[in-house]
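tool_call: predict_structure(chain=1)
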Amino acid sequence: MMLLAIEQGNTNTLFAVHDGKDWIAQWRTATQSTRTGDEYAVWLYQLLAMADLKFEMLDACIISSVVPQSIFNLRNLARRYLKVEPLVIGENVDLGIPVRLEKPSEAGADRLVNAIGAHAVYPGDLIVIDSGTATTFDVIAADGGFEGGVIAPGINLSMEALHAAAAKLPRVAIRRPERAIGRDTVGAMQAGVFWGYIALIEGLIARIKAEWGRPMTVVATGGVASLFHGATAAIDHFDSDLTIRGMLEIHRRNSGSL
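tool_result:
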Protein backbone atom coordinates (compact mmCIF):
# COMPACT_ATOMS: atom_id res chain seq x y z
CA MET A 1 0.00 0.00 0.00
CA MET A 2 1.21 3.51 -0.84
CA LEU A 3 0.10 6.40 1.33
CA LEU A 4 -0.14 10.07 0.34
CA ALA A 5 0.21 12.24 3.44
CA ILE A 6 -0.80 15.90 3.11
CA GLU A 7 0.29 18.18 5.95
CA GLN A 8 -0.96 21.73 5.50
CA GLY A 9 0.23 24.64 7.60
CA ASN A 10 -0.61 28.30 7.29
CA THR A 11 2.46 28.97 5.13
CA ASN A 12 3.43 25.72 3.38
CA THR A 13 1.80 22.42 2.44
CA LEU A 14 3.78 19.17 2.42
CA PHE A 15 2.88 16.21 0.19
CA ALA A 16 4.75 13.01 1.08
CA VAL A 17 4.52 9.44 -0.25
CA HIS A 18 5.17 6.37 1.91
CA ASP A 19 5.59 2.98 0.22
CA GLY A 20 5.00 0.85 3.32
CA LYS A 21 8.65 0.93 4.36
CA ASP A 22 10.01 4.41 3.75
CA TRP A 23 9.11 7.93 2.74
CA ILE A 24 10.10 7.87 -0.92
CA ALA A 25 9.11 11.37 -2.04
CA GLN A 26 8.32 14.74 -0.47
CA TRP A 27 7.27 18.06 -2.02
CA ARG A 28 6.26 21.45 -0.63
CA THR A 29 4.05 24.16 -2.06
CA ALA A 30 2.86 27.50 -0.72
CA THR A 31 -0.47 27.20 1.07
CA GLN A 32 -3.30 28.81 -0.90
CA SER A 33 -6.75 28.24 0.54
CA THR A 34 -8.44 28.91 -2.82
CA ARG A 35 -6.48 26.30 -4.81
CA THR A 36 -8.91 23.68 -6.12
CA GLY A 37 -8.54 19.93 -6.11
CA ASP A 38 -7.99 20.02 -9.88
CA GLU A 39 -5.19 22.57 -9.52
CA TYR A 40 -3.51 20.43 -6.87
CA ALA A 41 -3.85 17.43 -9.19
CA VAL A 42 -2.07 19.11 -12.11
CA TRP A 43 0.82 20.14 -9.85
CA LEU A 44 1.04 16.78 -8.10
CA TYR A 45 0.74 14.74 -11.30
CA GLN A 46 3.90 16.33 -12.70
CA LEU A 47 5.90 15.79 -9.52
CA LEU A 48 4.75 12.18 -9.25
CA ALA A 49 5.86 11.58 -12.83
CA MET A 50 9.32 12.94 -12.04
CA ALA A 51 9.55 10.34 -9.26
CA ASP A 52 8.24 7.53 -11.54
CA LEU A 53 4.95 7.44 -9.65
CA LYS A 54 1.33 7.68 -10.78
CA PHE A 55 -1.99 8.53 -9.13
CA GLU A 56 -3.19 4.94 -9.46
CA MET A 57 -0.25 3.73 -7.36
CA LEU A 58 -1.51 5.74 -4.37
CA ASP A 59 -4.23 3.84 -2.58
CA ALA A 60 -4.54 5.72 0.73
CA CYS A 61 -4.50 9.34 1.84
CA ILE A 62 -4.35 11.19 5.15
CA ILE A 63 -4.81 14.95 5.55
CA SER A 64 -3.80 17.25 8.40
CA SER A 65 -4.71 20.89 7.86
CA VAL A 66 -4.93 24.02 9.98
CA VAL A 67 -6.69 25.82 7.11
CA PRO A 68 -10.33 24.63 7.31
CA GLN A 69 -11.37 26.15 3.98
CA SER A 70 -8.75 24.03 2.17
CA ILE A 71 -9.92 20.65 3.44
CA PHE A 72 -12.79 20.49 0.91
CA ASN A 73 -10.35 20.88 -1.99
CA LEU A 74 -7.80 18.43 -0.61
CA ARG A 75 -10.56 15.88 -0.04
CA ASN A 76 -11.68 16.35 -3.65
CA LEU A 77 -8.11 15.70 -4.79
CA ALA A 78 -8.12 12.34 -3.00
CA ARG A 79 -11.60 11.35 -4.14
CA ARG A 80 -11.34 12.36 -7.82
CA TYR A 81 -7.74 11.44 -8.63
CA LEU A 82 -6.70 8.81 -6.07
CA LYS A 83 -10.20 7.25 -5.91
CA VAL A 84 -9.95 6.96 -2.11
CA GLU A 85 -11.75 8.47 0.87
CA PRO A 86 -9.05 10.29 2.86
CA LEU A 87 -8.58 10.22 6.61
CA VAL A 88 -8.88 13.81 7.87
CA ILE A 89 -7.35 14.66 11.25
CA GLY A 90 -10.07 16.09 13.47
CA GLU A 91 -12.95 14.66 11.45
CA ASN A 92 -12.94 10.91 10.86
CA VAL A 93 -9.92 9.49 12.67
CA ASP A 94 -9.24 8.01 16.08
CA LEU A 95 -6.04 9.56 17.40
CA GLY A 96 -5.64 7.02 20.17
CA ILE A 97 -4.44 9.58 22.74
CA PRO A 98 -6.23 11.52 25.48
CA VAL A 99 -6.54 15.27 24.83
CA ARG A 100 -6.59 16.89 28.27
CA LEU A 101 -7.77 20.35 27.33
CA GLU A 102 -10.84 22.11 28.71
CA LYS A 103 -12.11 22.15 25.11
CA PRO A 104 -10.41 19.24 23.29
CA SER A 105 -11.86 20.37 19.95
CA GLU A 106 -9.65 23.48 20.10
CA ALA A 107 -6.43 21.48 19.71
CA GLY A 108 -4.97 22.11 16.26
CA ALA A 109 -4.50 19.13 13.98
CA ASP A 110 -0.79 19.91 13.58
CA ARG A 111 -0.20 19.95 17.32
CA LEU A 112 -1.93 16.60 17.85
CA VAL A 113 -0.05 14.99 14.97
CA ASN A 114 3.24 16.23 16.41
CA ALA A 115 2.30 14.81 19.81
CA ILE A 116 1.74 11.36 18.32
CA GLY A 117 4.90 11.53 16.21
CA ALA A 118 7.00 12.49 19.22
CA HIS A 119 5.48 9.94 21.60
CA ALA A 120 6.16 7.16 19.08
CA VAL A 121 9.93 7.74 19.34
CA TYR A 122 10.79 9.58 22.55
CA PRO A 123 9.94 8.08 25.96
CA GLY A 124 8.78 9.99 29.01
CA ASP A 125 7.30 13.45 29.35
CA LEU A 126 7.95 15.74 26.38
CA ILE A 127 7.95 19.35 25.23
CA VAL A 128 7.46 19.57 21.45
CA ILE A 129 8.43 22.88 19.81
CA ASP A 130 7.13 23.50 16.30
CA SER A 131 8.55 26.59 14.58
CA GLY A 132 6.38 27.78 11.72
CA THR A 133 3.97 30.66 11.20
CA ALA A 134 3.42 30.35 14.95
CA THR A 135 5.85 28.81 17.41
CA THR A 136 4.09 26.25 19.60
CA PHE A 137 5.31 24.55 22.76
CA ASP A 138 3.23 21.45 23.52
CA VAL A 139 3.39 19.25 26.59
CA ILE A 140 3.01 15.52 26.01
CA ALA A 141 2.67 13.25 29.05
CA ALA A 142 4.53 9.95 29.30
CA ASP A 143 1.29 8.11 28.39
CA GLY A 144 1.01 10.12 25.15
CA GLY A 145 -1.67 12.47 26.45
CA PHE A 146 -1.81 15.99 25.04
CA GLU A 147 -1.69 18.32 28.06
CA GLY A 148 -1.73 21.75 26.40
CA GLY A 149 0.99 24.28 25.82
CA VAL A 150 1.98 27.71 24.54
CA ILE A 151 1.36 29.52 21.23
CA ALA A 152 3.69 32.41 20.32
CA PRO A 153 4.20 34.37 17.06
CA GLY A 154 6.64 32.71 14.68
CA ILE A 155 10.07 34.18 14.06
CA ASN A 156 9.25 35.13 10.44
CA LEU A 157 6.04 36.80 11.60
CA SER A 158 7.98 38.88 14.10
CA MET A 159 10.49 40.00 11.49
CA GLU A 160 7.71 40.96 9.07
CA ALA A 161 5.90 42.86 11.82
CA LEU A 162 9.03 44.93 12.53
CA HIS A 163 9.31 45.88 8.87
CA ALA A 164 5.60 46.58 8.43
CA ALA A 165 5.13 48.70 11.55
CA ALA A 166 8.33 50.76 11.51
CA ALA A 167 8.89 52.93 8.44
CA LYS A 168 12.68 52.99 8.71
CA LEU A 169 13.23 49.29 9.39
CA PRO A 170 13.96 47.23 6.26
CA ARG A 171 12.87 43.70 5.46
CA VAL A 172 15.89 41.50 6.28
CA ALA A 173 16.72 37.80 6.16
CA ILE A 174 16.71 35.80 9.37
CA ARG A 175 20.15 34.53 10.27
CA ARG A 176 22.20 33.73 13.32
CA PRO A 177 24.41 36.75 14.07
CA GLU A 178 27.71 36.23 15.86
CA ARG A 179 27.05 39.10 18.25
CA ALA A 180 24.07 40.14 20.32
CA ILE A 181 25.04 43.80 19.91
CA GLY A 182 24.27 44.91 16.36
CA ARG A 183 26.61 47.47 14.76
CA ASP A 184 24.02 48.57 12.17
CA THR A 185 20.25 48.44 11.72
CA VAL A 186 20.17 45.09 9.93
CA GLY A 187 22.51 43.50 12.47
CA ALA A 188 20.47 44.88 15.36
CA MET A 189 17.23 43.53 13.88
CA GLN A 190 18.74 40.10 13.21
CA ALA A 191 20.18 39.92 16.71
CA GLY A 192 16.93 41.02 18.29
CA VAL A 193 14.81 38.49 16.44
CA PHE A 194 17.22 35.54 16.53
CA TRP A 195 18.61 35.87 20.06
CA GLY A 196 15.24 37.12 21.26
CA TYR A 197 13.71 33.87 20.03
CA ILE A 198 16.42 31.83 21.69
CA ALA A 199 15.59 33.64 24.94
CA LEU A 200 11.89 32.98 24.34
CA ILE A 201 12.57 29.27 23.81
CA GLU A 202 14.84 28.92 26.82
CA GLY A 203 12.56 30.96 29.06
CA LEU A 204 9.38 29.08 28.17
CA ILE A 205 11.09 25.69 28.45
CA ALA A 206 12.30 26.62 31.94
CA ARG A 207 8.84 27.78 33.00
CA ILE A 208 7.09 24.72 31.56
CA LYS A 209 9.55 22.36 33.28
CA ALA A 210 9.13 24.19 36.58
CA GLU A 211 5.33 23.91 36.37
CA TRP A 212 5.45 20.27 35.28
CA GLY A 213 7.78 19.28 38.08
CA ARG A 214 9.27 16.21 36.41
CA PRO A 215 12.11 15.66 33.89
CA MET A 216 11.11 16.41 30.30
CA THR A 217 12.73 15.83 26.91
CA VAL A 218 12.56 18.75 24.47
CA VAL A 219 12.06 18.00 20.76
CA ALA A 220 12.02 20.71 18.06
CA THR A 221 10.59 20.46 14.56
CA GLY A 222 9.34 22.77 11.79
CA GLY A 223 11.00 24.58 8.93
CA VAL A 224 12.62 27.23 11.10
CA ALA A 225 13.85 24.89 13.84
CA SER A 226 17.12 24.18 12.03
CA LEU A 227 18.09 27.84 12.59
CA PHE A 228 18.28 27.16 16.31
CA HIS A 229 20.44 24.03 16.03
CA GLY A 230 23.57 24.53 18.12
CA ALA A 231 22.38 27.89 19.45
CA THR A 232 20.85 26.58 22.67
CA ALA A 233 21.35 23.60 24.96
CA ALA A 234 17.68 23.73 25.98
CA ILE A 235 16.60 21.64 22.95
CA ASP A 236 17.52 17.95 23.19
CA HIS A 237 16.56 16.78 19.69
CA PHE A 238 15.86 18.33 16.28
CA ASP A 239 13.48 16.07 14.34
CA SER A 240 12.37 17.21 10.87
CA ASP A 241 10.21 14.09 10.32
CA LEU A 242 8.10 14.46 13.45
CA THR A 243 4.88 15.51 11.72
CA ILE A 244 4.83 12.98 8.89
CA ARG A 245 5.79 10.25 11.38
CA GLY A 246 2.75 11.20 13.41
CA MET A 247 0.53 11.08 10.33
CA LEU A 248 1.87 7.64 9.43
CA GLU A 249 1.18 6.39 12.96
CA ILE A 250 -2.38 7.76 12.87
CA HIS A 251 -2.98 6.08 9.52
CA ARG A 252 -1.73 2.77 10.90
CA ARG A 253 -4.01 3.03 13.92
CA ASN A 254 -7.05 3.71 11.74
CA SER A 255 -6.42 1.40 8.81
CA GLY A 256 -4.39 -1.46 10.27
CA SER A 257 -2.00 -1.26 7.31
CA LEU A 258 1.47 0.08 6.48
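agent: The mean pLDDT is 91. Proceeding to next step.
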